[in-house]
Amino acid sequence: MRNRLLMAGVSLALSYPTFADDIGSLKQQLDNLKQDYEQRVQTLENRLKKAEDTTQSKPINNQAENSFNPAISLILDGRYTSFSNDPDGYKLPGFMLDGEAGLGEEGFSLGHTELAASANIDDKFYGKATLAIHEHDGSTEVELEEAFIQTIGLGNGINVKAGRFFSAMGYLNEQHEHAWDFADAPLIYRGLFGNQLRDDGLQISYLAPTDTFLQFGVEALKGSSSEIGAWTAFANIGGDIGVEHSWLLGLSHWQADDIERTSGGHSHGDEHEEHEEHDEENHEDHEEHEEEHHMEAEHDEHHMGTPSFSGENKIIALDFVYKWAPNGNPKYRNFKFQFEYFKRTEDGTLTLLDSDPLEATSYDGDQSGWYAQAVYQFIPQWRTGLRYDQLNSGNSGFDVELLEEAGLSGEDHTPRRYSLMLEWLPSEFSRIRLQFNRDESYTDTDNQVFLQYTYSLGSHGSHQF
Amino acid sequence: MFKKFSLLLLVLVATPIQADIRIFACEPEWAELARALGGEQIYTATTNQQDPHHIQARPSLIAKARRADLLICTGAELEIGWLPLLLRKSGNPKIQAGQPGYFMATDYVILLDKPTQLDRSQGDVHSSGNPHVHLDPERMLQVAENLSKTLIQIDPSNQSTYQAKLESFSQEWQAMMQRLDKQIFTGKSMVVYHNSWLYLQQWLGLKQSATLEPKPGIPPTSSHLSRVLATLQQSPANMIVYAKYQDGKAAKWLTQKTNIPIVALDFSPATEESLIHWFERTVNQIAAILK
Predict the structure, then answer these.
(1) Are A465 and B218 inside 8 Å of each other by CB?
(2) Would the N or C end of chain B have less CB density within 10 A of its end CB?
């Protein structure tokens, strides 16, 4: 036993040197391998570096505002509305309502479905067109809401826009309906522009090279003339106060020496008592007169004519916007205050088209109004807002009765409206809004409820301040 | 009117003002990178308390963009809600897409998480991939090299300065990368608010076990949070991470339920904080939790 152990020990001791030799050669091999790999890595690195050096000035990726060209977006807008008064009886004393300026349909209806395509056309121009599709008196209408081209990077802060566009008058005017904070336009927008002022023309603006935002611009617009029918001039100033507050102040002026405006027909009150008196003589050929009031409206329009103004028209506007967000991070909480004031003075002739004999009067228009609104996003996805509207008018003319018929007599009533809204925004692309209005546009107070959805599909638009 | 205006135009074109290059940086990380590489007049559009996805095209930003010689942003649709408007309104040819003064960092690196399916039911996805590349030090080096070239292209008279700055930045940056001990992060997992930390996770070897947002850009919902909670009770994560500009409520709730440590990180450098300092600080904050 002992001998065996000893022998094993001796043989182990004898074999040890060969064992050590093996390790040595392994080490050698490993070193060779390491050197080989290091060399290879080095050459690879050199090759990579070479490749990088030749390509580095070129971007690997190339991204633009849109992966598609052009960027397409579709706005879906639907609503359920309820009015305590008949919406067809809507009027705004002292203001001639035109275009789409009515209250819209009661019950379920679609708002503006907007289809827009936009893109940088080349390195010098950007273009955008928006089609608005909407229902009007039971038929679907397609309207070219805007179609313009705009320069990009012309230099020295100058921008030129041409085509059909929303005028830079005021603050809200340039924003699309889907970007508004309330379901309907401020009363003054409804009264002066039939919700929004847009025209065909040319806009040139200049941005001053200052730390404070300072912008001036002019617009030449078609108006109602074959040449340049209207002009606007606007100036904006804005900036930040610290990180959390920002503001924008604007002053604008619109002028047309010879403008023609015709009421859209929704406007003048069909249940108007003065009208009834005038109507007496027409009664015999309209037996169905009393049956339905909208029949009566048609009847009124037909026989009383549509009021139309022609003459000189000036509007001045003042707008102010203030925004706040904690740390300047508006995602979770933010606040916005907005105020606009408009004043229009007109001097010209008021005619009742289709009246026989043609009735006309001299007319001096003086219409003004303002609104103030505050919107607060109190928690993520939820916003609430308050708005107050007020209008004033002091129109005068030779034929006071005609003014009354045209709805331009103020009727000793100050149109007012109180609005309250609550919004839920599940994502950046969707919004559901509940709005309540106490509308004192005319003497009968109307309680209005809107339940509205607005969805945006397609390219990710960027919204103005 | 037109005459006056064209006269004004002429006067402006005829008198260019030559000064040091003005840099407009969309986020603080690009401002700090530009500063490290030799940029001097730098305006930063956002702070690290603000979510760069949701900035408004404020008048002040338009005014700054008007005068910039170089625009440095992340790109990859991160600023899509506001940058296109700034560019159009600025009337500044130097910073328009395709010009040397238009520098999008994500244009120079390969992006991860490029969606194969573009559908908004998946949330506010970025079609070109995850844009938050500034959290990957390797990619930052690539961006730095390209930005330095851009600076030279715009301001060739200071070429040697920019080259020297790049050299010293790269050295310091690489030294920082060496200094950081990545071993303790390997295999550890984190719950995040938004998929903002992807590149950092990749570099450190961290795993992401859940996001508090049910879909990108959609704030946490209670049903989603309870699902996350259930997952975490099955297999707990090592930490819950959110950026300081993000809403911390959901993260805090989850911490209370699970006792998983929570950390709020600066997604970008603080005011006047260097890029290296910020990055090292951020990684060390995560390391401190794991120790």
Answers:
(1) no
(2) C
Which residue type, as a one-letter code, is found at position B53? H
Cα separation, A385 vs A375, in Å, equals 4
A75/A233 Cα distance (integer angstroms):
31
Q: Nearest 5°: phi and psi at A135? A: -90, 135
H or E element in which residue B44 lies: strand B41-44
Structure tokens at B252: 């805090």
Under a CB-based contact definition with an 8 Å cutoff, are residues A462 and B84 in contact? yes
- In the numeric block, the tokens 């904070």 are attached to A181
Question: What are the residues whose beta carbons fall under 8 Å from the beta carbon of A375, sequence distance 6 or more?
Answer: A181, A335, A336, A338, A383, A384, A385
Residue with token string 């709020």: B264
Taking only the tens place, the pLDDT of each residue in B258-270 is 999 999 999 999 9
Determine contact, residues B250/B220, Cβ cutoff 8 Å: yes
Question: Residue A207: enclosing H or E segment and its boundaries?
Answer: strand A198-207
Same fold: B20-115+123-178 with B183-290: yes
Gap between the Cα atoms of A350 and A365, Å rounded: 10
CA distances to A80, A177, A206, A370, A429 from A453, rounded to whole Å, are 9, 12, 37, 27, 11
A259: enclosing H helix or E strand: strand A245-262
Distance CA A324, CA A181 (A): 16
Cα gap A163→A221, rounded to integer Å: 10
**Which of A331, A455, A459 is the best substitution to test chain B (most B C-beta atoms within 10 A)?**
A331
* Domain residue limits, chain B: 20-115+123-178, 183-290
Domains of chain A: 71-458 (2.40.160.10)
**Strands A71-83, A107-110: pairing kind:** antiparallel
The DSSP element (H or E) to which B71 belongs, if any, is strand B70-73
> Domain B183-290, what fold?
Rossmann fold (3.40.50)
Q: Where are the alpha helices (DSSP H) in B98-181?
A: 137-154, 159-179
Taking contacts as CB-CB distances below 8 angstroms, the residues of chain B near A63 are 75-77, 104, 106-107, 128
CB A385 within 8 A of CB A424: no
Q: Which helix (H) or strand (E) holds B202?
A: helix B198-204
Q: Provide the CA B243 distance to its chain's centre, in angstroms.
A: 12
The pLDDT tens digits for A360-369 are 999 999 999 9
Residue B207: CA count within 13 A, CB half-sphere: 9
Contact A406, A96 (CB under 8 A): yes
Fold topology of B20-115+123-178: Rossmann fold (3.40.50)
Q: Which residue on chain A is closest to B80 by alpha carbon?
A: A65
Q: Is B75 on the interface with A (CB under 8 A)?
A: yes
SS3 content of chain A, % helix, strand, coil (to 5): 25, 45, 30
Residue whose C-alpha is closest to residue B144's, from B245, B279, B270: B279
A423-440 tens-digit pLDDT: 999 988 999 999 999 999
Q: What length does chain A have?
A: 465
Going residue by residue through chain A (465 aa), what tens digit of pLDDT does each one get?
Answer: 555 655 555 555 555 555 667 888 888 888 888 888 888 888 888 887 766 655 445 566 555 555 557 889 999 999 999 999 999 889 899 998 876 678 888 999 988 899 999 998 888 999 999 999 988 777 889 999 999 999 998 989 999 999 999 999 999 999 999 999 999 999 999 999 989 999 999 999 999 999 999 999 999 999 887 788 899 999 999 999 999 999 999 999 999 988 888 876 443 333 333 333 344 444 444 444 444 444 444 444 444 568 888 999 999 999 999 999 999 999 999 999 999 999 999 999 999 887 778 889 999 999 999 999 999 999 989 999 999 999 999 999 988 888 888 888 887 899 999 999 999 999 889 999 999 999 999 999 999 999 999 999 988 777 888
B99 interfacial to chain A (CB closer than 8 Å): yes
